[in-house]
Amino acid sequence: MLTWNVTYHCRPGQRDAFYQALCELGVRENSLREEGNVKYDYFFSAADGDALLLVETWTTPALQEAHCQTAVFARLQALKAQYCDHVSIDKFSH
Fold first, then answer.
1. What's the CATH code of the domain at 63?
2. Domain count of the chain?
3. In what order do the strands lie in the sheet with 84-93?
4. pLDDT profile of the chain (94 residues), mean per 10
5. pTM for this one?
6. How far is residue 1 from each of residues 10, 56, 79, 90, measured CA to CA in Å?
């Protein structure tokens, strides 16, 4: 199993708009239907009003890599460029 904690550091005041755009694109729903996806959930930071945390878990690294080749993932990259200053990722294998 592989879990990634992906923190989107949004531009000031853009977190809610970014989250709404993610919802409209259907990123979570599409990801949950992909083979090997166990968890795909967003969390709002209590300490940082511009941070959005994604926790995603996959059964194998190969299936997570396949997720990164989907059309929805490609469209997510454009949203990140529009709304985020940077992204940090913590990776865990278990």
1. 3.30.70.100
2. 1
3. 37-44, 51-58, 2-10, 84-93
4. 98 98 97 98 97 98 96 96 98 94
5. 0.94
6. 28, 10, 27, 14
